[in-house]
Amino acid sequence: MKNFTSILQLGNINEAVRKAEYVKANPFADQELGRNRTLLMLFFNSSLRTRLSTQKAAMNLGMNVMVLDVNQGAWKLETERGVVMDGDRPEHLLEAIPVMGCYCDVIGVRSFAKFESKADDYGEKILEQFIKYSGKPVFSMEAATRHPLQTFADIITIEEYRKKERPKVVMTWAPHPKALPQAVPNSFAEGMQMTGYEFVITHPHGYELDPKFVGNAKVEYDQDKALEGADFVYAKNWSAYEGENYGKVLSMDRSWTVDSRKMALTDNAYFMHCLPVRRNMIVTDDVIESPQSIVIPEAANRVVSAQTVLKELLKG
Ligand code: AN0
Ligand code: CP
């Protein structure tokens, strides 16, 4: 694999999950693969899980790891070509990227949607420049439109917990005070198309996602109806995608918060969330603390997903 920016690049999802199971059972089996090879992780945005799990994955593979927080300690980067750089940004991405490429063998990039231009966000303007100018394999640690390492960990987790051949997975929007990207829900929906699961998306009117990611998933505006008989409830907030409302918070309606009454509509479903999660906005304390909550094993599988992907990138 040359780069990893979408879960679709894994090809057959069942084979990818089998590779992940091998990695999970044999975390130190491939230490030679990463020996004397360096991972650079570059963060334009905050992270807890991605930062730690990807570093751990790389160390399991025998790699050296460097981490750079662009907004803390590095020069502020100009990202627009053609601007007169007389402002507060002393360095341009067009020099910074190839320079960073000289210092490492693989680059991970976290660069969220900025909500300034939908075309730039959905064109993955920042990530694409890393692919074009770094000269090294690049992977997404959540970019503007997708979070494929999260989606892969989510699918690995569902495969571990599912009791049915074809579980019903419901992705529900839930309220949040700040505008969040669509990357996690886009990517999860994209991943669900690779599985044989029954997949339903539920959200208030106005929160429709890009049809490209929704695919042939069922969209049900009545959350209670959507949750009926669910085996997995995947909660997430996202901001509006459509038209003028792109990047806006349209609702903070806490009747969408996942609580025990809603979980009672399901078939004793497992509760999932990528984290970080705002309690009593997205999900109530009792639901996230219940035995059906699998958010911690889901986060633990981020090491497995990152290590499986890094292996493929190191193999080339
Ligand atoms: C981010 C998001 O919703 O995309 C990262 C989630 C993994 N969440 C926040 O910024 C709170
Ligand atoms: N789920 C996830 O990517 O978490 P972080 O933002 O903490 O990396």
UniProtKB/TrEMBL annotation:
EC number(s) per UniProt?
A: 2.1.3.11
**What one GO molecular function would you report for this record?**
amino acid binding
| GO terms, biological process | citrulline biosynthetic process; L-arginine biosynthetic process via ornithine
Enzyme type, top EC level: transferase
Which stretches make up the Aspartate/ornithine carbamoyltransferase carbamoyl-P binding domain? 3-160
Q: Which UniProt keywords apply?
A: Amino-acid biosynthesis, Arginine biosynthesis, Transferase
Query: Binding residues for N(2)-succinyl-L-ornithine, per the UniProt record?
Result: 142, 176, 236, 278
Recorded catalytic reaction(s): these are: N(2)-succinyl-L-ornithine + carbamoyl phosphate = N(2)-succinyl-L-citrulline + phosphate + H(+)
**SUPFAM superfamilies, per this entry?**
Aspartate/ornithine carbamoyltransferase
**What exactly does this protein do?**
Catalyzes the transfer of the carbamoyl group from carbamoyl phosphate to the delta-amino group of N(2)-succinyl-L-ornithine to produce N(2)-succinyl-L-citrulline. Is essential for arginine biosynthesis.
Q: Quaternary form?
A: Homotrimer.
Q: What is this protein called?
A: N-succinylornithine carbamoyltransferase
Q: Which organism is it from?
A: Candidatus Cryptobacteroides faecipullorum
